[in-house]
Design brief:
By secondary structure, this protein is mainly beta. The chain has six helices and 52 strands.
Length: 680
Amino acid sequence: MFLLVMVVFYSCGTSEEKEVAYEEVVRRLMDMKALAKLPGHGEKSAMWSSYDRESKIDESGKFINWDANIDGLKPQYIRKEGDKEVLAEMEGPGAIVRIWSASPAKGHVKIYIDGNEQPVIDLPFIDYFKPSIPAFEYPALVYETNARGFNNYVPITYNTSCKVVADPGWGQYYHFNYISFADGKTTESYTAELSDNARTALKEVNDFFTHKMGNSPYQKGEFESIRAKEKIPAGHAENLLSIEGSGAIASLKIRMDIKDEKKRAEAMRKVTISMRWDGSNEDAVWAPLGDFFGSAPGKNLYKTLPMGMTEEWMYSYWYMPFEDGAEITVTNDFDEDIEIFLEVEKDDLEDFNKDEIGRFHAKWHRDLKNLPKERWPDWTLLETQGSGRFVGTQLTVWNPKGGSCSLGGPGHWWWGEGDEKFFIDGEKFPSIFGTGTEDYFGYAWCDPTEFEQAFHSQSMDNDNMGYQPMNRWHITDNIPFQQSFQGYLEKYFPNNWPTQYSTVVYWYLEPGGEDPLKRVAVKERYGFETPYEVYREEGVVEGEELAIEKNTGGWATVDSWANEKLYTAISGHKVLLWNAAPEKDNELDLRIPSDYENGRYKVYANVIKNKEGGEFILVINGEEMDPIDCFIDQEGIRVEEVYLGKAALGDSETNTIKLVWKGEKNKGRTLKIDYLKIQK
């Protein structure tokens, strides 16, 4: 094994001051080192959200309506005060460290702190996610993701209390994540007039997230740099790094070379990384290589603060302390030889007392023990005992069908309806109870679009039909626990649908704490996904491929899932959906993305018919086709390909296509087009 050791310079200090200055809370946004310190007494993290209040646990411990799923379609709040809704209420000292919403609107949301009668922030809720006040003028901290979730990570500190009150019309769905400082601490309360130190801290963090993401977040000082490379034959394991004494791995970068790039996804799941601390015979870290670095299957380029995948490296900046040695081992369960390149930056532990450091843990699994029936639809992320901090989740979803699943009960709409539920230190009811899986990962409305931000990412877009990898890192909103952490995600869709999850969970744990997760055999981690091939009609223009250019009717979308009963008859499982509005003109202008040789073509439409179906006319380049009658006078639904006539077509720039509702006010108004078949 080739090994090179050199010295580079980094450092990071910690503060033991009794008062936590506002700028210190800001700098926690990228303080990876502080996560390794075991929590002090009184330190906690929790969340107020719009979860469905029908979910309860009674005095006897019985779970009631545990699968309830009306998180935002009806108001969810702590209580009402007149016509106002109290969304969150906390005791200090602490800080709001994350605000999220799927649909913020113009109704005002007011934040009161420290018993003051005047709110410290009073804005339309939508303006919490815009540069509306000086504190929110940092786009790497206040933003809407490409996948539609609204996020605000600017800390709002308070000393004695905090209360969040919403006026009518504030919107739908909310999270307010907050932290409480350890006993004996106070904090500098947030003010609208930011100090120079506060502005400087916010700017430094924003600039790093904007311009330096993927670089080490540690400040300059003295680190030891270790490099290694190793060829690992198929079926063998190699110890790539063995360090004696104390220290911490602050930066870990790995590159894997294989002969056949087409097999990279297989190799990334079959090759595993493990880490052990302090001479232990038990893994603290064990995961498939790709999953550990935050995305799967394969190598999907993304950058976040603690982890990422670039063209050159997969990187981790989790701070990993040890007192009596560290080992990193790579095991090759792939059927070909591989070559591994490793770079590590090692820190000493001068900033920590020996008894206050946790050990970094990260484990992959896909299905743990079944919970009692009354706990459905909870799916276990992690159950661990001892003192520590939960700091992140990587989730890979295999959901090839897309759309809804009636087996999902209250969560049948789509795979991501499930809420996170985190129980801390044996609490009876979870102090973190979310509103949906995509909400937990910081996006919204089932949007599969790729995005990357400092604390979360979605690194593959298969239109919700296939693999969907995402991650969420808890940095300022890390979840401290003194005795235990029990984390779950609701999973409404069953494995045999198929909707199958795999995850890596990341946490710090005191030495001697209970980590129950073990290694998983290669046959259980690669190829376990149930195959499913989506029906697709050849040579057609899918409804979801049409572009809506103008709509003078009711609601229209090209992103509507067909009823699951029709998946064998609806190409691609999606349709163009349009609902006419009797009081409007009801014309829908469309663009076909394909070019055609000038000429006349036969036109067919594959449509869904039901009792809500209406009568529509397709007009192509000014020529009216025969009517599309989507009405059937019976219960149920039917798919039918109908011939509409002939029309002249040319290139996509000159073709004009529109739909016109020809129905009557009291008749059906719905049109669902699966595809247009256009033949010479």
